[in-house]
Amino acid sequence: MSDRTRIPPDWEVARLRLLFAGMLGAFAVILATLWRIQVAHGEQYREDLAKQSVRRVRIPGPRGLIFDRRGRPLAENRPSYGIALYLEELRPTARRRTTAQEVTRTIEELTAILGVPPQVTTNDLRAHIKRRLPLPYIAWRDLPEEAVARWAERGASMPGVDLYPEPVRVYRAGSNACHVLGYVGRAEIDAGADEPYHYYLSEMAGAAGIEKVYDDVLRGQAGGRLVRVDAAGFRYHDLGGTEARPGQDLKLSLDLDLQRAAEAALAGIPGALVALDPDTGAVLAMASTPAYDPNGFVPSIPSSLWTALRDDPLTPLLNRAAAGAYAPGSTFKPVVAMAAMQSRKASASTRHTCPGYFQLGSARFRCWDTLGHDTIDLSHAIRYSCNVYFFHLGLDTGPDPIAATARAIGLGGRSGIDLDAESPGIVPDPAWKRRAWRDTWRDGDTCNYAIGQGPIATTPLQMAMVAASIANGGKRVHPRLLMAVRPHGADAFRDAPGEAPESLGWNAAALRVVREGMRDVVMAEDGTGRRLRVPGVALAGKTGTAEYGRKEEGKKRGWMIAFGPFEKPRVAVAMVVEDAVSGGLTVAPRLQQFFAAAFGAGTNAAPAGGQG
Amino acid sequence: MKRARRNAGAAAHSPAAYLLALAVTAAATGSVWVVRFAQAPVVDARAAGLAAVYALSLAASWAVVRRFAPGSSPVLAPAGLLLAGLGLAMGFRMSGSFSMPLASLVAFPAGVASMLAIVMLFGRGRAGALAAFRWPAWAASVAVVLLVVVAGRRFRGTLFLPGNINPTEILKPLLALFAAGFLARSQEGARKGDPDAMRLLACAALWMVPMAGLLVQRDLGMLVLMGVALVVALYAATPRPYWIVPALAAVPAAIAMFRYTSHGRRRVELWLDPFADETGAGWQILQGLSALYSGGWWGSGVGAGFPHAVPIAASDFIYAAIGEELGFVGCVLLVATYGALFAAGFSAAARARQPFQRILAATLTAFLAAQTLWNLGGVTKALPMTGIPLPFLSRGGSDLAASFVMLGLLIVLSDRAGGKTQEG
User: For residue A574, is pLDDT > 90?
Assistant: First the structure.
């Protein structure tokens, strides 16, 4: 065995030396790297580390409030309480458990105390642990009061758990003005924005209505807070940042009393009512039925509720007042009358005879009163709503002047009101018919047009604009909901005026004829809208009835436009209801409730002329 | 002559080195304890228990190594124990309030016991007898890999046995033993000389059988280590450049592994640009760097840093915690300790009289050194992090035990007195 104790060949030792030298070299590299990191650290390196150890947290500014024109709250923020878990404090002390298990255990404990199941899933938790460990993990949101009380009593001493206050939108007026106000949802924050945040506190974003249109104004400016979470521990080293700025408060032109009166007038029937200040175009009330309670939509809409509302055949989500366009029926006649007189095809003294029907070639167009109206002038034709008279008037005038007048008032196009959903409606003329139906315009079309039937479609808002233009002496109004804005910290609201009304260039005498005809509709004993009368105030109006749906069903929409007081109007209204007997029978008594509330004894609910 | 040598050995194995290890560990543990006590004045009996276990291990090691491997390197055992002691102190420091990781408490005494058992059995020049275990060692390594592949569960991308035990750590001494025995066979007896090409290739092929299992297990760190060790084994076995074969083969293999497996690709991407996912998977590397960076020259002192900010600080990223708390100076001393350990290992290889001892010592040292370098490189972002623990220091039971087994082997291989005494 002595041969085993050989002298190792040179190559063996040389190789091992080489290996050892290589290893020493590698160690030297490691130490050099280490030296660079620990001692010599370059500026770039420091920056990189600062970048990774600082978390930007986006903190939303409190959302602005919404008030009615008298300062009554419509949308506010209510504090809500959630439970936040601070995961780094919940790190397990026993090695066998993971943070996730520890947190799950804590959540189970809290569930027993609160009596409310948590609103997060295991996946949420896993993602949070991985990406946002140092930031609060919200396991419950908007806890009921009893649960918060139970937590305060039994859970407050738990380590790593704390109450998490968060504002929630609340609509003080419930379903009142729901279509105008809209609602908020959770904001989807664009992750690719210029300033990327690591964490977002939940933020509200307007999803419909005023909340959506003025979202920028209401939302204010999110602030950023920098939080350091480096090797110095998972602690908040608040490094400052930009302050979150609260949003601005809005004052709407709506009058909550009138709004409620409008909704009461529509009670139990699908329809819409729009009331404008004829001098400014300010919207005093805008109601659409059926309505919904937007408080059920916050912070997010339960899918069952959403499905139910979406599939409801009565379309509660639709704002009929601005987004529903229907044939205006006889409420369109004042427009036709103005068009006829403006184009000098008729005057106050123009008379036609109504035998109860109108023969046009082989077709016979009926007046609504088959007994006829004898020979009457324009004012009486409006008062009785005589179809035959308006067939003559329409044929004398022609469709184009009618369309031009209607468009000047604001029909056939979006009014530009500050709402997110608006229908432009349709104002037909021969060119339109050629384009849309590839057909020529016939006299029958003109006859239908003259009584507000056929393809014409107007929104209640547009018909309220018609009423306003007649009420204010011939000015086109630009309806607007926003009245004033109050930036955060300011004491007073600042007016946010909309476009001023513009003159339509109407002949004063012609307008007087229409106005008087409309006054007689209400005030004369035989006016079709006499059921609108309110003691002590002179009102003017025009009723309308338009068929819709399949002919054999015989369904009719009842309309009424109205304004008052007659001499110096402060309110101009359009109202439509579905499934009506007629405008005079179904709508007038309902609209009477509204005017009674607006001008009734002691309520004085109608706004003063100059306001807004 | 014999007496003189033994005396020289005994003198070399003075208790001073062991006392140094004890002092370092006690200082570290004491520092943790003081910080803890300042935070919550509770006397922690476990720290005392830990100190007792550790002191006992030191004493036993000193006595056994002195008695059974008197000619062995005086550096190996104290260096390993010092590192392990520091690892225990850091583990104690990392653990929650007052609990000690059970795995370390079991693995440390078990590892030390294995090391001492090896010394007692194969000391005094009986290391050559280990060559007889080459085939059982190979069979055992294949069996272990099969067990893991069949019964393992995935955790952090890698298969582990229940309880997150990774028994493949034991592959390192087993395969080193096999390769050394297999390659040395040709250099003994009648056919003295270099192993022929067939034998070298056969060795590489057999070595790669358990490696294939590791591929399934997706333990990238272990695969890298095994590849490096195989190259070193061949390099140490023959003057002819056969080592180039696995070294060249390793290049495409590594590229394939890091590029075409999602696990590996992710590691490389994170390594190249941890800031791309700074709050996610890159977080660990960055927090490790951040901890190192905050250490500066002198560190914050053991117990005073915030190593919990680094995910899995107690295992793979322990060096980041040490860097933070002991500073650059502490890190240099730590690296120097490793350097002394590996120098002793290579020295044992260089002085070995027999090819078996030489190849085995070189391969074992290569395993430990490569593991250390790869871990340090990963933490300092010089290399991709692949989940390799730092030998002796990292918390992790099976790795600590395997490291002590390898240390025990190195001790008996370094026993200069060996050959002579046996021959009498």
Answer: yes
Asked if the Cβ–Cβ distance from B290 to A6 is below 8 Å, we say no
Mutation target among B99, B102, B279, B420 for the A interface, most CBs of A within 10 A: B279
d(CA A428, CA B11): 115
Where residue A612 falls among pLDDT bands split at 50, 70, 90?
Answer: very low
* Residue B376 vs residue A135, higher pLDDT: B376
The pairing of strands A137-140 and A161-171 is: unpaired
Pick from B128, B293, B339: CB nearest A41: B293
Q: Which of B108, B1, B6 shows the shortest CA–CA distance to B50? A: B108
Task: Using CA coordinates, name the residue in chain A closest to B326.
Answer: A38
Q: Which residue from B minimizes the CA distance to A50?
A: B290
Q: Which residue of A has its CA nearest to B235?
A: A15
**From B232, B292, B369, residue closest to A38, measured CB to CB:** B292
Residue B206 has pLDDT above 80, yes or no: yes
Q: Per-domain residue ranges for chain B?
A: 2-413
Set of chain A residues whose Cβ sits within 8 Å of the Cβ of B328: 34-35, 38-39
Query: B338 to chain A, minimum CA–CA distance in Å?
Result: 9
CB nearest A38 (choices: B296, B309, B353): B296
Q: Do the Cβ atoms of A38 and B331 come within 8 Å?
A: yes
Instruction: Count CB atoms within 10 A of the CB of residue A371.
Output: 9
Using alpha carbons, select from A374, A558, A387, A542 the residue that is nearest to residue A466. Answer: A542
Judge whether A279 and A478 are in contact, CB under 8 Å.
no
ipTM for the predicted complex comes to 0.80
CA–CA gap between residue B322 and residue B91 (Å, rounded): 11
Non-local CB neighbours of B177 within 8 Å, separated by 6+ positions: B130, B133, B134, B137, B360, B409
Residue type, A320: R
Structure confidence by residue, pLDDT tens digits, A50-77:
555 555 666 777 889 999 999 999 999 8
